[in-house]
């Protein structure tokens, strides 16, 4: 009796588990990937062919061109507008039986692959990209071969479509072979390239480029720069440099190639004209030139103009000031006593002379 109860309990538990799993599968959306412009059929769970169902996309009725065949929804000539969450409901009670996330895309094409060493002789990196979008998640598998053995590939943490590889040896005569395969739910495509070690060496541009005028030299500019920080061993693997400069008023560049110096004096600048200056770098023996550095602008020294001074003295006429005529109401200044006596003497002198002549008679 105990064994029978135990068996019944197990059967009931198994039925509950199956029902829960079915119910959960109905609630959790499954992904379905289809090619652009193709005809698509979506099956509503495991319902029989004679089941009657209705469909919704993103919670609303399906409005795109379609038709139903039992539990199947058929779409014709799909494009990106058909992407969405499709749910089917069994009639007549409207119980949801399945949920499908439809993704429309295209298979990947052969990726474009390039490799470069800006940290020679430590290693190199390879990068890749798709010329055309796939519209669905696409991953890349990378394999690097050298001298009949696979090399360790490290994914770049900062760039999704880039990996780094260490040189197993320096000055190797064996070529490197890099294969990159693009993979998504609709297909895969791969590209393989081969190269010699010396052909991919390309430093980063020089850094901290400066250009300053030289005092009292109206046609000179002092240019200096630093080797790229990514170049790991400047002593054993020196760089040479290529300087170009031009005035803003002209389109033609002037060029100077330098050995391992990180400075140069321009001696043929146009006086008073603004210049644009850039520098590139290259390993002294192998590889190719870097890209140009960030452009800097500078103008040769310009002499300060002297202040304007007069060398001829000009005599200006002395200004004559006239006293204003006092008004009749203004108080008059008292005259000194001597002046009054002189005027009285002048008035009475004829009278006195006449009296003197009379007495003489």
Automatic annotation (TrEMBL):
Name the PROSITE patterns on file.
FN3, HEMATOPO_REC_L_F3, IG_LIKE
Q: Name one GO molecular function term.
A: cytokine receptor activity
Which UniProt keywords are listed? Glycoprotein, Immunoglobulin domain, Membrane, Repeat, Signal, Transmembrane, Transmembrane helix
Give every Fibronectin type-III domain span.
Answer: 107-204, 205-305
Leader sequence range is 1-21
This entry carries the following GO cellular component terms, namely: membrane
Pfam families from the entry?
Answer: fn3, FN3_IL27B_N
Residue span of region Disordered? 308-335
Q: State the family named in the UniProt similarity comment for this chain.
A: Belongs to the type I cytokine receptor family. Type 3 subfamily.
In Swiss-Prot or TrEMBL terms, this protein is called Ciliary neurotrophic factor receptor
């Amino acid at each position: 009796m105990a064994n029978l109860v135990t068996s019944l309990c197990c059967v009931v538990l198994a039925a509950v588990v199956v029902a829960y799993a079915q119910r959960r599968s109905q609630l959790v959306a499954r992904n379905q990937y289809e090619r652009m412009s193709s005809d698509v059929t979506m099956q509503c769970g495991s319902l029989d062919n004679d089941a009657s169902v209705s469909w919704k996309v993103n919670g609303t009725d399906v409005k795109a061109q379609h038709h139903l065949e039992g539990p199947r929804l058929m779409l014709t000539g799909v494009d990106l507008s058909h992407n969405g969450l499709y749910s089917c409901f069994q009639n007549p009670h409207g119980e949801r039986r399945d949920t499908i996330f439809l993704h429309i895309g295209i298979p990947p094409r052969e990726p474009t692959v390039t490799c470069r060493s800006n940290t020679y002789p430590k290693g190199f990196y390879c990068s890749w990209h798709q010329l055309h979008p796939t519209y669905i998640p696409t991953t890349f598998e990378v394999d690097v071969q050298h001298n009949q053995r696979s090399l360790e590939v490290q994914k770049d943490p900062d760039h999704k479509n880039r990996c780094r590889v260490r040189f197993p040896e320096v000055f190797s005569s064996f070529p490197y072979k890099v294969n990159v395969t693009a993979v998504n739910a609709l297909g895969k495509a791969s590209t393989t390239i081969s190269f010699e070690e010396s052909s991919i060496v390309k430093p980063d541009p020089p850094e901290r480029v400066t250009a300053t005028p030289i005092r009292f030299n109206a046609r000179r500019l002092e240019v200096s720069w630093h080797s790229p920080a990514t170049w790991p061993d400047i002593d054993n693997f020196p760089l040479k440099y290529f300087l170009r400069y031009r005035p803003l008023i002209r389109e033609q560049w002037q060029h100077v190639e330098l050995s391992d110096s990180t400075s140069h004096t321009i001696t043929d600048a146009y006086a008073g004209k603004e210049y644009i200056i850039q520098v590139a770098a290259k390993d002294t023996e192998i590889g190719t030139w870097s890209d140009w550095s960030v452009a800097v602008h500078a103008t040769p020294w310009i002499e300060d103009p002297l202040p304007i001074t007069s060398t001829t003295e000009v005599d200006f006429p002395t200004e004559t000031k006239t006293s204003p005529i006092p008004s009749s109401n203004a108080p008059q200044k008292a005259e000194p006593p001597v002046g009054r006596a002189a005027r009285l003497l002048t008035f009475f002198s004829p009278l006195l002379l006449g009296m003197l002549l009379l007495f003489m008679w």
